[in-house]
Amino acid sequence: MSVPKSVRARARKLHAELHEHNYRYYSRDDPLIPDAEYDQLLRELQSLEEQYPQLITPDSPTQRVGAAPLKAFGEVRHEQRMLSLDNAFSDDELLDFDRRVRERLETDEVEYAAEPKLDGLAVSLLYRDGRLVRAATRGDGITGEDVTQNVRTIASVPLKLAGRSIPEVLEVRGEVYMSHAGFEALNQQAASAGQKLFVNPRNAAAGSLRQLDPAITARRSLEIFCYGVGQVSGGTLAETHTDILAQLQGWHLRVYEDVQRVTGVSGCIAYYQHYEQQRERLPFEIDGVVFKVNRLQQQQSLGFVARAPRWAIARKFPAQQRETRVLGIEVQVGRTGALTPVARLQPVFVGGVTVTNATLHNEEEVQRKDVRKGDTVIVRRAGDVIPEVVRVIRERRPAGTQKFQLPTSCPVCHSHVVRVEGEAVARCSGGLFCPAQRKESIKHFASRRAMDIEGLGDKLVEQLVEKERISHVSDLYRLTVEDLAGLERMAEKSASNLVEALQRSQSTTLPRFIYALGIREVGEATAQTLAREFGDLDLLMAADIEALEAVRDVGPVVAKRISEFFTEQHNRKVIAALREAGVHWPVVEKPQAQPFAGKTFVLTGTLSMPRAELKERLQSMGGRVAGSVSKQTDFVVVGDNPGSKHDKALKLGIPVLDEATCIEMLSK
Ligand code: IVH
Fold first, then answer.
1. What is the dihedral of CA 597, 598, 602, 603, to 10 degrees?
2. Helix/strand/coil percentages in the chain, nearest 5
3. Is the pLDDT of residue 86 over 60?
4. For the chain, what is the mean pLDDT?
5. 84 CA to centre of ligand 1 in angstroms
6. Tell me, what's the pLDDT at 135?
7. Which of 3, 237, 357, 481 yields a CA-CA distance of 20 to 30 A from 141?
8. Domain span at residue 338?
9. Is 251 or 599 the better-scoring residue by pLDDT?
């Protein structure tokens, strides 16, 4: 059935009107018509589209929800890197920033754009010919996740831009966040449904955006503020950041209303102070303010270093501090027997989460701060950082407190506590006889980056060990649905899911298996190196200290740990039992097949991706990563502020790669 002209015209008119109302309502908070009228227009369009499905276009105002759930997110490579920001934690640091900017620009005074730093997650919105075609998370700045279907459900993200002179390709960047009100409402719902609560609005926003089912995202009240652009072509943008934001707003993108042009540091400080005061009264969470050199030309001449532009800085609010009381000091026993004193605290809300305990690291630290049971202390937590005890308020110490002392026997298994000379850590000598070490080693074995046993969480491991259903990792594979059902929080269904997950985990890789064994000092990267060098578990188990030390990056300490681990009869038995139970892995590829086989890299300077990650990627392609530059080095990869290694590479005539080029080589 073809669509009558008049219907097509009406649909077009409804599109335009609804887009406009959407914008006025969600982006400007200034609706032109009552909600009921809006609903009526939307229903009219829906019924036209029902009658004539040809009318449905991806940018129709009816098409915000309804996409089918995904199995996994696709990957998006950012055409232009998504940078992050350097931080200033004091006015002095801000002064330094401004001085550097002025020196580089050779000017006395700089105009900045000042805006709040929203605490959500960064997204990239790609518009082609004014239509939203893709939305992605920041990821590591180079590749992110394709979250288009989810972002389409955010009412303040226009599916279609309005106005004139819209560039053919326009990539907009902004922060998706959840307001305090949206967060409270979500948690109230979760509470009444008996579900887990989100700890803070940022986690709630991230969790909501990274949902495989867009229908769930649609029910969460996410919002966006746009704060910049990425790639642009087929059109021109204004010459200052503030004018660009005005352009974006003209195209119906949502921009924060109080972005100000300020002059010099004094202008910046005034803006910061205003927001430090207003912070609590804002309807959403901010963790500081951002200053950006306003003129684009100046931005370009400043450029950027590894991870962040030289033309912008985040002035962060100080880490929140709160007073609370120490209810006790517990000693936890870790996987390798390390004893860690932990302060149990009167619950206190600080830095966006409720804190109930804070690590005291080791005995020396407790002695230095002299934290005691009964003390009133100041705790601090900033952003994602783990909470810490800043200091004790001595005047408030009650009478009769006692200095903390680390026990001389393990609080769990009562074995001797040993302390190696020169090490701050004290350890339980019980080994796998100690239930605490056993629990931790099983948790480690099951963890995502090790054997990845889905559904085998910490609480479950604790129950299994306490009820003596398992004592070693090899016992896991003997568990049956009957063994599991009947444990706390274990219905039949989850029990059979777990048994399936256990079966799935039997098919693993050699690096994962080596890592899962939990040998001291053997992290993921070392496990990979060992798997690559030996190619076979039996060869690794038979290796003597010399053979181990011959492996690049394995020093005498690590070699000793590995050798000790495999000499221990108990460990050999557990490994044999695991293999007997069916744990297996494919033969490890020989390094010869790898593009960087035999090549030695040295990394120096501040890199944008975690150094360990880059190292691992190089190693997985056969490369070696050494700590110092010599004639044997093939490439030196330099990040920001490289030091003497860079100089040495130049002196020796060794090829120098910047990080981007190196990553490019990796992805070839
Ligand atoms: S600009 C080139 N502006 O902060 C600079 N970022 O620490 C790129 N953020 O990843 C960022 N509010 O998620 C900018 N007004 C704002 C911001 C902002 C929040 C976030 C953003 C970014 C992170 C960097």
1. 10
2. 40, 20, 40
3. yes
4. 91
5. 6
6. 96
7. 237
8. 321-396
9. 251
